[in-house]
Automatic annotation (TrEMBL):
Specifically methylates the N4 position of cytidine in position 1402 (C1402) of 16S rRNA. Transmembrane segments: none annotated. This is Ribosomal RNA small subunit methyltransferase H. The gene is rsmH. Coiled coil: none annotated.
């Protein structure tokens, strides 16, 4: 064989094919141009007009209603128990007009520094705003530093940035590790948690935390994997297990029902992993002791379990004479807000005033 030809052929054979990068951006950061809102303002505007939330952002809910109720005055001291993207914090801090102080808490070590930087760049630095990586269940500790609070806001649950980031594992719609921790450095992941629960406990978790009608069937399906020693390590795996278990649902409603069950089961697991009911309970119990006389608290909830807890606590302390007034029924976002921000649909706002 001609030696030259053979070398050429070998070279051709070994030349690596260039990977086809495809027409669709693969990475989250590339896919969502809105992640850099300053750079892609047109994209952000278009996304918001469609009633969606641009990736990397969170649209604050019931802002006007909250500000109207809290009636913040310059010189007051307040607390935002759930900083998130900092939308509510920014509006509340602005009402102080440079006098007084706002404390804002979040457990999330990933989003918190970004929000701190963003707010500082907008003129809300440490002279008016103290941002702490703390669980709101420790509100009594925070109050030792702040003194009695004139106003408190808690906007419960997760932010859009957390939901949209596949690495965090909050959404069944995107593939990622089944984590679901608000603070990924603490506690155990969703995957670990599923492994450690019995069939009965799983069923109880889905019912208690999310009123899941197919809790028994789904718990059974998960337990099969547990017994085989197969870890349900990703969001996609859990979604597929739920979907497979619910194939008996008549075709007409199957797709929709599966989607709802996925939503509820992920919510239930998130609540469990982050002990959300326990910390909310602790927060509600401590609140009356940290509010100043006449102090106001507003709480935004996103599902019936949370709302029930808030309603019961407010009523209980009103009967004891600790709150002089509480919301008789929850305030709902306006139709216009719901139209322009789908995530506002399930929000309920309750408030109380310290005697
Ligand atoms: C709905 S978002 C808040 C959005 C915020 N109000 C805004 O305008 O951007 C809820 C935030 O509360 C945080 N969070 C949830 N439970 C918490 C807790 N127990 N203590 C402190 N922060 C918590 C979450 O990490 C998330 O960032």
């Amino acid at each position: 064989m001609d030696e030259k030809k053979s070398v050429e052929q070998t070279e051709i054979k070994h030349k690596r094919r260039k990977r086809y990068s495809g027409t669709h951006p693969k990475k989250f950061e590339e896919k969502y141009k809105e992640l850099q809102p300053e750079k892609y303002q047109d994209t952000v505007k278009k996304v918001m007009e469609k009633g969606s939330t641009p990736a990397g952002m969170h649209r604050s809910i019931c802002v006007e209603e909250i500000l109207e109720f809290l009636n913040i005055q310059p010189g007051q001291t307040g607390l935002d128990a759930t900083l998130g993207y900092g939308g509510h914090t920014k509006e509340m801090a602005a009402k102080l007009q440079g006098k007084g102080h706002l404390y804002s808490l979040d457990v999330d070590p990933i989003e918190l520094p970004k929000t701190r930087e963003r707010l500082a760049a907008q003129g809300f630095g440490p002279e008016i705003l103290t941002i702490l990586q703390r669980n709101f269940a420790e509100i009594d500790e925070v109050a030792k530093e702040s003194g009695p609070l004139d106003f408190v806001l808690a906007d419960l649950g997760v932010s859009s940035m957390q939901i949209d980031n596949p690495e965090r594992g909050f959404s069944f719609k995107v593939d990622g590790p089944l984590d679901l921790r608000l603070d990924p450095k603490k506690g155990v992941s969703g995957a670990e948690r599923l492994k450690s629960l019995t069939e009965e406990e799983l069923e109880g978790m889905f019912i208690e935390n999310a009123d899941e009608p197919y809790a028994d069937v789904i718990a059974k399906a998960i337990t099969k994997y547990n017994k085989k020693g197969i870890e349900i390590s990703t969001t996609t795996m859990l979604r597929e297990i739920i979907s497979e278990a619910l194939q008996f649902i008549p075709e007409k409603t199957r797709k929709d029902d599966i989607k709802k069950s996925c939503q509820r089961c992920f919510q239930a697991l998130r609540i469990d992993v982050n002990s959300e009911f326990e910390v909310l309970f602790e927060f509600l119990e401590k609140l009356p002791h940290v509010l100043a006389p006449g102090g106001r608290v507003a709480i935004l909830t996103f599902h019936s379990g949370e709302d029930r807890l808030v309603k019961k606590a407010f009523k209980h302390y009103q009967r004891e004479g600790i709150y002089s007034d509480v919301a008789k029924s929850p305030i709902r976002p306006s139709d216009e807000e719901i139209r322009s921000n789908g995530r506002a649909r399930s929000a309920k706002l309750r408030w109380a005033v310290k005697a």
